[in-house]
Amino acid sequence: AQRVTQPEKLLSVFKGAPVELKCNYSYSGSPELFWYVQYSRQRLQLLLRHISRESIKGFTADLNKGETSFHLKKPFAQEEDSAMYYCALSRGSTLGRLYFGRGTQLTVWP
Amino acid sequence: DAGVIQSPRHEVTEMGQEVTLRCKPISGHDYLFWYRQTMMRGLELLIYFNNNVPIDDSGMPEDRFSAKMPNASFSTLKIQPSEPRDSAVYFCASKITGELFFGEGSRLTVL
User: Fold this and answer.
1) Burial class of residue B1, CB neighbours in 10 A (0-12, 13-18, 19+)
2) In angstroms, how far apart are the furthest CA atoms of chain B?
3) Residue B99, phi then psi, degrees to nearest 5
4) How far is A44 from chain B (nearest CA, A)?
5) Alpha carbon of B83: minimum distance to chain A alpha carbons (Å)
6) Helix (H, G, I), strand (E, B) or coil at B65
7) pLDDT digit string (tens) for B60-95?
8) Are residues B29 and A94 in contact, defined by beta-carbon separation less than 8 angstroms?
9) Quick check: B91 and A49 CB within 8 A?
């Protein structure tokens, strides 16, 4: 069965510090991985997906199939990065639902 | 497109009352999802539809919850009777492939 694990419920860093939000998954096939972000009291929105291999708002994430991980990283955190971040897995772009982790609340202190 | 539209944005009701949440997906999207978000449980999938047909409702907590999708542009999530533990933010989302687009959510408070 597929599962997404975000081990940290809360993560705090100071402005300018590097940040890494961890995501591990279990799935025997070839998954598609996503990071969604939810700013305070707003809708969830896609931050990035592994197949696009791009950097959004300074964030990057690399799919590591050996470690079954898709950690989200940013070298210099900003206060506006404070939000809830969800890692999600799809079994294939046409195969219905996304499986979400429980989320990590990131707080960036000034 | 205005995106996924949900109503009401906020609902406060008393225990035992019926609650109906509404969702209009993005035109052309053939998948529709209902999620519930709470501090304790995070984001939980309740049910999802493909081409208006319910595919997986295993996340629906109890018989008090029901969802319908009478056509491609409208879905409802109904709770009858409502209980205080149903208080949460309910999100609707739609997609074709890949990216999931969320609505702004309906914040439900059951007193």
Assistant:
1) exposed
2) 39
3) -65, 140
4) 6
5) 23
6) strand
7) 988 999 999 999 999 999 999 999 999 999 999 999
8) no
9) no
